[in-house]
Amino acid sequence: MSEFSGIWVPLITPFANGAVDYSALRGLVRRYADAGIAGLVALGTTGEPAALDAAEQDAVLATILDEAQRTGRTTPLPVMVGVSGNHTASMRERIEQLNPLPIAGVLIAAPYYIRPSQAGIVGHFSALADASEKPVVLYDIPYRTGVRLELDTLLTLAAHPRIRAVKDCSGSLDTTLALIRDARLQVLAGEDIAIFNTLCLGGSGAIAASAHVRPEQFVALYRALSEGRLDEGRRIFHALTPMIQLAFAEPNPAPVKALLAAQGLIRDELRMPMTRASDALIERLNAL
């Protein structure tokens, strides 16, 4: 099972004068396809989906899917779609809308804010996986949702035939290791600083916001470790570490957008309540 291996980039949404910059968005898709990444995540938290209305979300996704078909690769660049919320019935409807699209899967976080029981979480994800015709990737990120996916819950959900992987932001080495040893779910590092550890333990890859910058090096890191070249992988990771740390020194995706703007790929714009990286941080980023 290799559908969710490698380095995936959770694509930012570029803005220009307040509007979505679809031309820049297409340029980013081509950029990461050329860099050899495994796939893209559309409308993940890094893409500021909460700041996009429904029509913009659909247009962003359509643009990414269209450009992913045009990259010149032998097969289209896979695109996973983030689906978030805390109303199971509404999320089922969204997933049913996505079913006909040529997507690689859906990335779903636990219901945020309401903090359901673990039994409620199992029922929620099971209902969504039942509705999905595409593979489901669980997103365990308790510091955003207010509730964690306990290990027993993850192992229960792993029995569902359409739940294939987990984006692991649990912060628990015990959970990461147990999931890798269980082997039913592919484990993708969700905390960028944990990429090296997760891959060395046997994880399948990463969904890494900092891979927007120097994507070729992230791909080289994955290839080195997956091929057993530990010293090379360690050297690459240590070279990337200062940038990874600064990429999360302020709320994501502000630092990443500042770095991309410095490269001339996008404008440095976010939508409220998100704000641009501070001048002090931008100075440190530019020093890289």
From TrEMBL:
> What's the main place this protein lives?
cytoplasm
Give the enzyme class: lyase
> Per its UniProt record, what InterPro entries does this chain match?
Aldolase_TIM, DapA, DapA-like, Schiff_base-form_aldolases_AS
Q: Which domain of life is it from?
A: Bacteria
Where is the protein found, in the record's own terms? Cytoplasm
Instruction: Please name the NCBIfam families in this protein's record.
Output: dapA (TIGR00674)
Job description of the protein? Catalyzes the condensation of (S)-aspartate-beta-semialdehyde [(S)-ASA] and pyruvate to 4-hydroxy-tetrahydrodipicolinate (HTPA).
- Any idea what this protein is called? 4-hydroxy-tetrahydrodipicolinate synthase
Origin organism is: Paraburkholderia metrosideri
